[in-house]
Design brief:
Distance between the termini: 69 Å
Structural class: mainly alpha
Shape: flat
Length: 398
C-alpha cells in the first residue's frame, strides 16, 4: 500500500470513528502530498463532514483543506450558507471560507445572505468576505448602499477593499441620515489622497454627530502637507473645545501632526484650569509628538504652571521618550532643573521614580551624579529606578 492509499484508509477509519481531529490531520497530509492522486470529491465529502461535525477549532483547521480543494467546494458551502436550519457557527465558517475564493459565483450568495440575515455576527463575516473578493465585489456592494438595512455593512466592506473604485460609491453616503454610515464613509475615504476627499472631511467638521466630527478630524490629520493650503490649524483648533472629549483628544493629536505652528493652541488648552485631565494628558503627549524644541519648551512651562501630580508625572514620562538625538540633551536638562530648583514634584515618590526612569532612557551622562544621589532615596522604588537608570548610563558605577 502506497503512502496515499494508507492516508486515505486512515482518513476513512477516522471518519467512521468520528475522530474529527485525526481526520483533519490525514486530510491535511493528503492535500500536501497527494491531492492530485486522490478523488477530490471524496476528499470534499470527508472535509465537509469535519466542518459540520467538528468543534470550533476543528472547523478552523479544516478551512485550509476546503480552500485547497478549489472551486468544487463552492456550491456545497453555499448550500450550508443558505441553510436556515444550520447552526450559526457553521454558517459563519461557510461565509468565511467562501470569501477565500476569488470566484464570481460566491458574490450573489454572500450579498443575499448579508441582505436578509438578521444576525449581526453573520452579516459582519459576510461583509468581510465580500470585501476580501476585492474589486469584483464593488458593484454588488454599491447596490447594498441603496438599502438602509445593509448600508453600514456595505460601507465597512468597501472600506476593506481599499481600491480607488470605491471612492465614488462612498461619496454617495457621506450625507446619509445615519451618523454611523457617515462616520464609516469618512473613515474609508480618509485612506485616499484624492482631491474630492478633503472638502468632504472639512464639511464634516461641523457635523452634529460627534463620531462624524471625530472621523473628519482623524482623516484631516493624515494630510499635514495640506495644512497651509486648507488652513487646517485654524479649522481644527476650535475642536479642542468640542463638547465631546474624544473629539477634543483627536483634535490635539491632529494639531500635533501639523507642526510647531499648532503648539501654542495646545499649550493654552493644557494650562487652562477648565480643561479635563483626560485632554490635558493627551495634549502633553501631543506636544512631545511635535519632536521639536518648541514642544519641549511648552512642556517645561507647563511643569511650572500646572499643579497636578498626575500631569507632572506624565510630562516627565514623555520627556524620557524623546527619540531625536538633538533633543535628548534639552529634555534631560528640563528634568535636571526640576531636581535642582527643586520643583514640588520632586517630593512625590511616583514622580521621582518617573524622573529616574526617564533619565535612564535619555542616556545623557550629566544625569549620573543626580542618579547616584537618588540611590540613597528613602523610597525603595525610587532607589530601584535610579539603579536601573545608572546601569544604562554607567554600568560600572551602578
Amino acid at each position: 500500500m502506497n503512502n496515499i492509499s494508507q492516508l486515505l484508509a486512515q482518513a476513512q477509519a477516522a471518519y467512521y470513528a468520528g475522530d474529527w481531529s485525526s481526520l483533519i490531520h490525514y486530510l491535511q497530509q493528503l492535500i500536501l502530498v497527494g491531492k492530485d492522486e486522490a478523488d477530490p470529491k471524496y476528499l470534499l465529502e470527508l472535509s465537509l463532514s469535519a466542518l459540520e461535525m467538528g468543534d470550533f477549532q476543528q472547523r478552523w483547521d479544516i478551512t485550509k483543506v476546503l480552500i485547497s480543494l478549489g472551486s468544487i467546494a463552492i456550491n456545497p458551502l453555499i448550500e450550508l450558507l443558505e441553510d436556515d436550519e444550520a447552526e450559526d457557527e457553521l454558517r459563519w465558517f461557510a461565509a468565511r471560507i467562501l470569501g477565500e475564493f476569488s470566484h464570481p459565483d460566491v458574490i450573489n450568495p454572500l450579498v443575499e445572505f448579508l441582505r436578509v440575515n438578521e444576525n449581526e455576527e453573520l452579516r459582519a463575516i459576510a461583509a468581510s468576505s465580500l470585501a476580501q473578493l476585492g474589486t469584483v465585489a464593488i458593484p454588488k456592494l454599491s447596490e447594498l448602499l441603496k438599502d438602509e438595512n445593509t448600508r453600514l455593512l456595505a460601507v465597512r466592506s468597501l472600506a476593506y477593499v481599499r481600491r480607488t473604485e470605491t471612492i465614488n460609491p462612498l461619496l454617495t453616503v457621506v450625507q446619509d441620515h445615519q451618523a454611523a454610515v457617515r462616520a464609516a464613509a469618512l473613515e474609508a475615504l480618509s485612506s485616499f489622497h484624492d482631491e474630492r476627499v478633503a472638502p468632504v472631511l472639512l464639511n464634516a467638521l461641523n457635523d452634529l454627530a460627534a463620531p462624524v466630527r471625530r472621523a473628519a478630524i482623524i482623516g484631516l490629520s493624515y494630510r499635514p502637507g495640506l495644512s497651509a493650503q486648507l488652513d487646517l490649524i485654524r479649522k481644527i483648533q476650535p475642536h479642542l473645545y468640542d463638547f465631546n472629549i474624544e473629539v477634543c483628544c483627536v483634535a490635539a493629536v491632529a494639531l500635533a501632526r501639523m507642526g510647531d505652528d499648532a503648539a501654542q493652541h495646545l499649550f493654552q488648552v493644557l494650562v487652562s484650569p477648565h480643561t479635563p485631565i483626560t485632554l490635558q494628558l493627551e495634549i502633553i503627549r501631543a506636544l512631545n509628538w511635535l519632536e521639536s524644541l518648541t514642544g519641549l519648551e511648552y512642556l517645561q512651562q507647563a511643569l511650572n504652571q500646572l499643579t497636578s501630580a498626575t500631569l507632572w508625572q506624565e510630562i516627565v514620562t514623555v520627556l524620557g521618550r524623546v527619540q531625536k538625538p538633538e533633543l535628548k540633551t534639552p529634555a534631560t536638562e528640563i528634568i535636571l532643573q526640576m531636581l535642582q530648583a527643586p520643583h514640588p514634584a520632586t517630593k512625590i515618590n511616583s514622580v521621582k521614580s518617573a524622573i529616574a526612569l526617564s533619565l535612564g532612557q535619555l542616556g545623557c551622562p550629566q544625569a549620573t551624579e543626580l542618579l547616584n544621589q537618588m540611590q540613597e532615596d528613602p523610597d525603595e522604588f525610587v532607589r530601584l529606578h535610579a539603579i536601573a537608570a545608572l546601569k544604562k548610563l554607567t554600568p560600572s558605577l551602578a
